[in-house]
Amino acid sequence: MSRVHLDYNATTPLRPEARAVFLEVLDSAAGNPSSVHHSGRAARAVVDDARARVADALGVDEDAIVFTSGGTEANNLALFGSLEALEGPIQLITTPVEHAAVLEPARAAAERWGGRVRLRLLTVDAAGRPDLDELQALIAEGPALVSIIAANNEIGTVTSYGEIRAILGERSDLIYHSDSVQLLGKRRFDLSAVDLATFSAHKVGGPVGVGILVRRRKTPLAPRLFGGSQEAALRPGTENVAAIAAAACAVDLAVQETAAFETMTAARTGQLWTGLREAIPGIQLNGPALDDPRRLTNTLNVSAPLQDARTLVVKLDLAGLEVSAGSACASGSIEPSHVLGALGIDPQRAAAGIRISLGKSTTEEDIHTAVDKLRRTLGEAS
């Protein structure tokens, strides 16, 4: 049975170039980067080179790069680190369509700090974009940490950094963080408008276990861990040298290939949606319209009539098609997608929503096969 993988927003295969770097560094730089002897200095040089490569790819200074164990840790460091470094009452303004790696820390922070940190969730429209007038009104009330996702992992909605910065202005009592994990390699961007941004290497062909927090403008940040001075004392612990080097390779190449990725996946996603509409009566698109320029070109979230997404994903897997019901990080949940719920979609349709996400190796044949497997599986379920 042929299998088609269309769940690239969950993770991506380790690209050959990154794998080669990983294996090379395992052999050539096995020392502890904090040691002063030859092996330690060699390992330190690899980490420094990786930091420079990532900084150049993202268009920031080298000292803005903090390596972590993944996007989740980077988000936690951004939120808890900012709130702990700041004094006095503060709002934590975010949206109900954030990844759980932002929403759950935000709720935990509000609970931990009680009245000092007030959690505010912005209203979003049917495409998942925040109400900017509401944001304007909230920041008028006082200091705030604003965390708004750059590209939604479930529905592909893109929110412009510049649009948010235009609302925030240059006030020193406002910090702007963006979970940008899904943006990297899928759309070109300029980080000059943000204070903190988070990325994850395994979303772009790098190894699992390496995240990146970009900290610009010397944004106040307190460490979450203690026991060493690594990563400017923000993330102590011996660095995973080989994985960091491989991650830098993957990030660099993904940024270089962004334009080609956008062009290819836009065409493939268009073919997929056309095929699904022809093959499956009543299928609905969730999130921004396909011709909306402010959406990821590789992501499609759809609901078929009278279906349960979790059951459908299992049936599709048995048929050889790999997709997801919402975020992979929430795969243990039995609740409908919180993202689709926040869009105002009715519960039955939200419960039917599946995410289909394309990758750099997705072919036209994959698209035709996926449509056929979905058509057959839904036909058997009816």
UniProtKB/TrEMBL annotation:
Broad enzyme group? transferase
Q: What are its E.C. numbers?
A: 2.8.1.7
Q: Which UniProt keywords apply?
A: Iron, Iron-sulfur, Metal-binding, Pyridoxal phosphate, Transferase
Tell me which InterPro entries the record gives: Aminotrans_V_dom (IPR000192), Aminotrans_V_PyrdxlP_BS (IPR020578), Cysteine_dSase (IPR016454), PyrdxlP-dep_Trfase (IPR015424), PyrdxlP-dep_Trfase_major (IPR015421), PyrdxlP-dep_Trfase_small (IPR015422)
Q: Which cofactor does it need?
A: pyridoxal 5'-phosphate
One GO MF term attached to the UniProt entry: cysteine desulfurase activity
Q: From which domain of life does this come?
A: Bacteria
| Reactions listed under catalytic activity | (sulfur carrier)-H + L-cysteine = (sulfur carrier)-SH + L-alanine
Is the keyword Transferase assigned to this protein?
yes
Q: What Gene3D superfamilies does the record point to?
A: 1.10.260.50, Aspartate Aminotransferase, domain 1, Type I PLP-dependent aspartate aminotransferase-like (Major domain)
Any idea where the Aminotransferase class V domain is? 4-368
Q: Name one Pfam family in it.
A: Aminotran_5
Give the record's family classification. Belongs to the class-V pyridoxal-phosphate-dependent aminotransferase family. NifS/IscS subfamily.
Name recorded for this polypeptide: cysteine desulfurase
Recorded source organism is Saltatorellus ferox
